[in-house]
Amino acid sequence: PAAEVGTPRRTKEIIAKYGFSFKKSLGQNFLIDGNVLNRIVDAAELDQSKGALEIGPGIGALTERLSQAAGKVAAIEIDQRLIPILGEVLADKPHVTVVHGDVLKLDLRQLFQQQFADCEGVSVVANLPYYVTTPILMKLLEERLPLQNIVVMIQKEVAERMAAKPGGKEYGSLSVAVQYYCEPQLVCTVPHTVFIPQPNVDSAVIKLKVRNTPAVSVPDEAFFFRVVQASFAQRRKTLMNNLTSFVGKEKRDELTALLNSIGIDPARRGETLSLEEFAALSSSMLEAGW
Ligand code: SAM
């Protein structure tokens, strides 16, 4: 049998055979390291009863591994030039479906019904295109897809922001959004050398265990996230000053009273508030009719 796709030699062979040229604008950095592929697939906790959704299969290095670990694999690839290559690389795998399209535009609920109806759980497993990491993850989470976990290779700084706890400079609205839906866990950091071509940034694998119910309960989710955004609007400002810009100067005194009534010092900065505190804050602001 042919060598695995995720090796320097076979990847170079496939690229040469099809005359494939990398598009930087699509975040194309292909994995050529078996150990890293193992780490990613192991973290996803797959078995034959489970499904795997891959975003951006490239020439199929991870797809091939997923086809061994899961009962069903669906892979969404935007680059038309890769579709025939994937067709050949994955030819003898009837339980793998390649879908040509942009993950940000596809109806993922419908795709889930079509591809994973028989699965007992689905994981998203991907080496993501770094230019669209956050929009892709937010789409997966906001659509409340029935996911058990998400295991993705992303830019190291973004992984650290997702997993950050209150108080540090990495903690921001992305940390709150991700932790509202998931329990994040850094799996490993990864050197440049495991990719062709090598990216200019450091990478890490992060596992997001999707919660059955959000971390905090809020009466109005959209409003909760607007309050979070507003609290981090200008990081050097206090919570009081950021929120004043949000609700209007005339409400300054009311705002001070409201913060004191829920035990949050108005002089604190947004980056020190826990999810529970943001939930309490947005709930009282909503009650106050803001
Ligand atoms: N999974 C392969 C691997 O690990 O070797 C390739 C990973 S590469 C970092 C990202 C892949 O995502 C590329 O194949 C790229 O064409 C694809 N891609 C980029 N934007 C996409 C989008 N919006 N929807 C689907 N695929 C996309």
Automatic annotation (TrEMBL):
Pfam families reported in the protein's UniProt record: RrnaAD
Enzyme superclass (EC): transferase
Enzymatic reactions: adenosine(1518)/adenosine(1519) in 16S rRNA + 4 S-adenosyl-L-methionine = N(6)-dimethyladenosine(1518)/N(6)-dimethyladenosine(1519) in 16S rRNA + 4 S-adenosyl-L-homocysteine + 4 H(+)
InterPro entries: KsgA/Erm, rRNA_Ade_diMease-like_C, rRNA_Ade_Mease_Trfase_CS, rRNA_Ade_methylase_Trfase_N, rRNA_adenine_dimethylase, SAM-dependent_MTases_sf
EC id: 2.1.1.182
GO cellular component, one term: cytosol
Superkingdom of origin: Bacteria
UniProt domain Ribosomal RNA adenine methylase transferase N-terminal: residue ranges: 36-212
Annotated compartments: Cytoplasm
Binding site residues for S-adenosyl-L-methionine: N29, L31, G56, E77, D102, N127
UniProt keyword annotations, A-Z: Cytoplasm, Methyltransferase, RNA-binding, rRNA processing, S-adenosyl-L-methionine, Transferase
Single GO MF annotation: 16S rRNA (adenine(1518)-N(6)/adenine(1519)-N(6))-dimethyltransferase activity
Matching PANTHER family: DIMETHYLADENOSINE TRANSFERASE, DIMETHYLADENOSINE TRANSFERASE-RELATED
Family of this protein: Belongs to the class I-like SAM-binding methyltransferase superfamily. rRNA adenine N(6)-methyltransferase family. RsmA subfamily.
Protein's job: Specifically dimethylates two adjacent adenosines (A1518 and A1519) in the loop of a conserved hairpin near the 3'-end of 16S rRNA in the 30S particle. May play a critical role in biogenesis of 30S subunits.
Protein name: Ribosomal RNA small subunit methyltransferase A
Species this chain originates from: Paenibacillus nanensis
